[in-house]
């Protein structure tokens, strides 16, 4: 661009920053008496950003300075800062607006388009005479430069709206220009430095030098005009996408303690919407979805415009921008070399490059994960075992595999809640012992944390490491035999599913080998939802007793029971009532009213942790009291947590362990696992064995049946 700076003291006009493409740059008008005029058809205003052009304009020193384009009829556009400026049309069609360059006066020149100097009056940069020969009107600019810009409305191309108004008020134009530039810079800096974890979102995170910003600035300064413009748009859009990805990562780290998987995690957004709907109502879901869509669109558009804006500013002030880029680059290298930190955060940042590289590796791994999983799933140690030799050590028993939502190691190990949970487990152990039951406990490592219960359930039952939705879909569309399906395959058990968290068709139930399935609509419950939880745990167990377990003259039963009361958001929570008062669940209407509002609970992490603990207590009470009341000599209970709760509750713990217990009245059942080394009682010791969840199926089937013909299969994550 060509920019005319203040003339020298002797009245000689200087031109700075003339670029090779010959574009013209006009400074913002100030209160020093400068005025500017746009060529007709220009998209810019006096006092605003300069426009790029393929034609250069150079004022002559110590002489009248004429800036304009010669139209077909001899039309010239110019500006006179200190003299009357006349816009008119002569009879012959010659219309001129001239300006004389005076000392200490800036002469802004605005020439729009590649055809600014074309002789054809219809060219995009040509000033035209009034079609009727002009009306002969003239407007005078104030001596101090605060007039209307010294350009008639016709000469200005009939500018309207904000641009036209700002042309009359150069001081306001400067404020708008500077303010917009500052906001653009702040947004770009935010996008470059914002971390992808909420716990890192602090002041120190923004006191850093982003390597990506320095490199991009150098690149944009080096490019020619047109490639530079396109590159600035592309960079802005990409930076917007990276910023959105960081926000999504914040959510995933907050719930699942891991970043978002660009290939496999899209299905989880639907699950998140369902959770919001069930927790905060349909209006909450609609508001959340609209807010997310608006944020994404706004961030992409604003980030793109912000990068383009800063690029224009850098080009107009190329020497300063170049020096600043060199200084920042040198500072970044120095900080890396010396390991300079601010509040334990490295000053030299390359976070965005690291995030992008990690995602590239993640995408490659996710794309190959299907092949790896298919190879693992092809191995099943018990696939060829005859049905009459499967699970012989449990024949005649009612085997109940029960999952307690979010029952993780944190509930037992965290000092803030261990005392209350220990009391519940001790009470449960004593109560079961009084009823004639014994128990053993240990730890299992879940493939997920915070959410994704179905992945944990399928891992436990299939003997495969189901760590993502792609593996889950591959599993449930295969012929893999799960633990529950092996019970069905023997023909010695009826298989039942109690799944109160299921609200829609669940075709996977057939894959898991369940003869009869009772979801939230088939348990006879007419009470209210407790946030996400459709049916309180005590009612679910009571319904199981009424619909299946309590029937006379039935076959032995294997049941998969999923208790959901300890599901996030843990408010309101039901409490134990007399088993005979369950009825159709209407009694829970009043109980819900007495509970807490989840929106209030989630305002404080400590209240979240407290309500989580209360929810786990309720689930444990429901299950142990059910076995005490309805269990008999043939009852075998295997219960476990599916995954750890969200990081808000785990408070920094990275463990994925969940407790697992086996309860039975027949001593022969526990004798078969005596070599496992599990802890006696419902509370596993800190030193109890820690197994991967996918190893349980084969260990269990080995303990309660003949040894398979091949070694037990294990998979790797």
Short note summarizing the structure:
Helix content is 41%, strand content 10%. The protein has helices at 161-168, 170-193, 211-222, 225-256, 267-316, 318-338, 351-377, 410-413, 415-434, 453-462, 469-476, 483-490, 508-511, 537-549, 588-594, 598-601, 605-630, 647-650, 667-671, 696-703, and strands at residues 2-4, 15-16, 24-25, 64-65, 99-100, 209-210, 341-342, 345-346, 348-349, 398-404, 438-445, 494-499, 516-519, 557-563, 635-641, 657-664, 679-680, 690-692. The strands form five sheets. Strands 10, 11, 12, 13, 14, 15, 16, 17 and 18 form a nine-stranded mixed beta sheet that branches. The protein has a three-stranded mixed beta sheet with strand order 2-1-3, with no helix packed on it.
Helix count equals 20
Please indicate the percent range of residues in DSSP E strands (runs of 2 or more): 5-15%
Oligomer state equals: single chain
Main beta sheet: 9 strands, mixed
